């Protein structure tokens, strides 16, 4: 093998070694989640003696994994559906009707994209607390809609602008209503935008901690990041089940990632370059 | 006739716009305005007090030395995180832009930490820093790792930087790869015909032509790391002795634990101003380096 042929494969091997090192934190936690806490403390590098699922069972019960998972699922799916549904309609409204109020609202939404959550969280808690609307999943869904709409509208707006109006005109001539035209003609064309937004919004909402920690107070409402936090605060020395808990929380996102890898990378790229 | 059109337009607006607009106003616009007003009052949940007190809260922020210490700590943390995460992401992206087989897998792998929320990531690294590394340090006599990094302010600082960078690298890498894909092939070919070395190609061609991607990445990493909360909470919980509280952590404590809503909100406004000024200045300065291919 000449040096010229050898170099690229050497580079590849080095890259895989680098990736392995990069992912070592995961691998260590996975490996140790199958050991007892004592085995972990004695030697975190030892291989597990077998596939023990005790830690997983214990974590599943102690962190109320199922409740957390279902709450996270409900809130993520619910919020994403609301954001997609309403911001696609509003994006369409802003493109097709150049009223003054639409222009003002559109620019307000655009400007709000620069606002960090940090400047809104205190008044948000104050206002919704005063109206006794905290500690409810509905309130959280509504807040995610409000926070998700500006980017959603902006993204749909950019895409709908490129759709020729003639398509809709012919539908109107045949007597189709505005609503029907939107759902039957425009909506199917928006597929690529849906994919991008689903990816970005799911990752954001599924992993979010600060907002739900301020809104959801009772244990039965807690999402997975919140139950992970509680679990770690109350079981801080029993490492084995804690690690199993971490792995369990990661698995759902990881499965989604492996299934939708291409769309996710594409969605992230498009989201970032906007 | 005119009236009929107006009615129809109002109907269209309500149907297509109302739900999003109501949510946007109720969750973003109104809290933003109330938030600004809040910085001029002494609002307190317990007493229900709500009097206008002028700029007292801003004076309190000015005098809150803890806030400024922590803001300075945050600045240092942002500085190192931005440099480390961007340098690493740039070079990983560079070696992953050859069109070779297996690149897709490598990209997927490097991106993985970005899928995971800060809380889970923070606990993952907390376990490593407090258990695994000290074990290695004691076993092999590496003095660096003998005690947990999280028990000392300086090392806890680096623990925060490393954990945040680890999460950011994959995300920035994706943007850099997209940026490199935009470098025209003929320019690269011309360079290779002229006998430019790999280093020269990177420095003279890749770097200047990917300035837009660099601007985006630096912007994203500055604003993200300035606002870090989850990782801070899970990794160090502000400790040891509140010495590693980043700005957001401090604001959350101020508002929701000490019940100083007005001061906390004023600090949030100051933080926002600092982030905006720094992020926009860097974009402006870096953009001047932009060239046409």
TrEMBL record, chain A:
Q: Where in the cell is it found?
A: Cell membrane
Which keywords are on file for this protein? Cell membrane, Membrane, Transmembrane, Transmembrane helix, Transport
Against InterPro entries, the record matches this protein to:
MetI-like, MetI-like_sf
Similarity remark: Belongs to the binding-protein-dependent transport system permease family.
Q: Where are the transmembrane segments?
A: 13-34, 73-95, 104-129, 141-160, 181-206, 239-260
Q: Where is the ABC transmembrane type-1 domain?
A: 69-260
Please tell me whether the keyword Transport is annotated for this protein: yes
**Keyword Cell membrane found:** yes
Q: Which Gene3D superfamilies match?
A: MetI-like (1.10.3720.10)
Q: How does it sit in the membrane?
A: Multi-pass membrane protein
Which Pfam families does the annotation name? BPD_transp_1
> Mind listing the GO biological process terms from this record?
transmembrane transport
Protein's name according to its UniProt entry: Carbohydrate ABC transporter membrane protein 2, CUT1 family
Q: What SUPFAM superfamilies does this protein map onto?
A: MetI-like
**Mind naming one GO cellular-component term on file for this protein?**
plasma membrane
The protein's matches in PANTHER family, at most eight in alphabetical order, are given as: ABC TRANSPORTER PERMEASE PROTEIN MG189-RELATED (PTHR43744:SF12), ABC TRANSPORTER PERMEASE PROTEIN MG189-RELATED-RELATED (PTHR43744)
Automatic annotation (TrEMBL), chain B:
> Which GO terms fall under biological process for this protein?
transmembrane transport
* Pfam families on file: BPD_transp_1
Keyword terms of this UniProt record: Cell membrane, Membrane, Transmembrane, Transmembrane helix, Transport
Annotated transmembrane regions = 12-38, 77-98, 110-136, 156-184, 205-227, 268-286
What topology does the record note for this protein and the membrane?
A: Multi-pass membrane protein
Annotated ranges, domain ABC transmembrane type-1: 71-282
Sorted alphabetically, which Gene3D superfamilies does this protein's record hold?
MetI-like
Primary location recorded for the protein, binned into one broad class: membrane
- Where does it localize? Cell membrane
**Where does the record place a coiled coil?**
none
One GO cellular-component annotation of the UniProt record comes to:
plasma membrane
Q: What is the similarity comment for this entry? A: Belongs to the binding-protein-dependent transport system permease family.
What is the name attached to this protein's record?
Carbohydrate ABC transporter membrane protein 1, CUT1 family
Say which species the protein is native to: Paenibacillus polysaccharolyticus
């Amino acid at each position: 093998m000449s040096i010229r042929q050898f170099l690229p494969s050497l580079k590849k091997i080095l890259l895989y070694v680098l990736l392995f090192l990069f992912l070592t934190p995961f691998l260590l936690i996975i490996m140790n989640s199958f050991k007892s806490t004592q085995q972990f403390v004695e030697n975190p590098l030892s291989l597990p003696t077998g596939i023990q699922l005790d830690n997983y069972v214990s974590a599943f019960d102690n962190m109320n994994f199922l409740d957390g998972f279902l709450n996270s699922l409900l809130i993520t799916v619910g919020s994403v559906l609301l954001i997609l549904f309403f911001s696609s309609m509003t994006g369409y409204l802003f493109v097709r009707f150049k009223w003054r109020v639409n222009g003002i609202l559109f620019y307000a939404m655009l400007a709000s994209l620069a606002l960090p959550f940090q400047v809104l969280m205190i008044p948000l808690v104050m206002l919704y607390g005063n109206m006794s609307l905290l500690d409810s999943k509905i309130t959280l869904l509504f807040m995610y809609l409000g926070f998700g709409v500006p980017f959603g509208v902006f993204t749909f707006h950019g895409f709908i602008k490129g759709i020729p109006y003639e398509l809709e005109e012919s539908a109107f001539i045949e007597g189709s209503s505005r609503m029907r035209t939107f759902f039957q003609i425009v909506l199917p064309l928006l597929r690529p935008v849906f994919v991008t937004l689903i990816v970005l919004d799911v990752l954001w909402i599924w992993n979010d901690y600060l907002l739900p920690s301020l809104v959801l107070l009772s244990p039965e409402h807690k999402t997975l990041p919140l139950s992970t936090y509680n679990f770690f605060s109350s079981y801080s020395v029993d490492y084995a089940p804690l690690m199993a808990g971490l792995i369990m929380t990661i698995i759902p996102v990881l499965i989604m990632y492996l299934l939708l890898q291409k769309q996710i990378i594409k969605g992230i790229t498009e989201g970032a370059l906007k | 006739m005119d009236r009929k059109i107006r009615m129809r337009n109002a109907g269209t607006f309500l149907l297509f716009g109302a739900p999003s607009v109501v949510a946007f106003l109720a969750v973003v616009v109104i809290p933003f305005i109330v938030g600004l007003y809040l910085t001029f009052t002494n609002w307190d949940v317990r007493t229900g007090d709500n009097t206008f007190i002028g700029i007292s809260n801003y004076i309190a922020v000015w005098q809150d030395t803890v806030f400024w210490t922590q803001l300075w700590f945050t600045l240092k943390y942002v500085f190192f995180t931005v440099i480390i995460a961007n340098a690493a992401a740039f070079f990983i992206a560079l070696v992953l832009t050859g069109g070779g087989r297996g690149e897709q897998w490598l990209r997927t792998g490097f991106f993985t930490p970005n899928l995971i929320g800060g809380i889970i990531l923070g606990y993952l690294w907390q376990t490593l820093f407090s258990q695994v590394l000290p074990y290695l340090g004691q076993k092999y006599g590496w003095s660096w790792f003998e005690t947990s990094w999280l028990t000392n302010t300086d090392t806890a600082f680096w623990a925060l930087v490393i954990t945040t960078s680890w999460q950011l690298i994959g995300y920035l890498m994706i943007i850099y790869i997209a940026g490199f894909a935009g470098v025209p092939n003929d320019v690269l070919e011309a360079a290779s015909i002229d006998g430019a070395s790999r280093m020269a190609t990177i420095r003279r061609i890749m770097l200047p032509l990917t300035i837009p991607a660099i601007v985006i990445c630096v912007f994203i990493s500055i604003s993200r790391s300035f606002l870090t909360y989850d990782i801070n909470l899970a990794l160090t919980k502000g400790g040891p002795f509140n010495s590693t509280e980043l700005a957001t952590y401090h604001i959350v404590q101020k508002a929701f634990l000490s019940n100083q809503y007005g001061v906390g909100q004023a600090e949030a406004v100051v933080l926002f101003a600092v982030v905006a000024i720094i992020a926009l200045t860097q974009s402006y300065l870096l953009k001047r380096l932009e060239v046409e291919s």
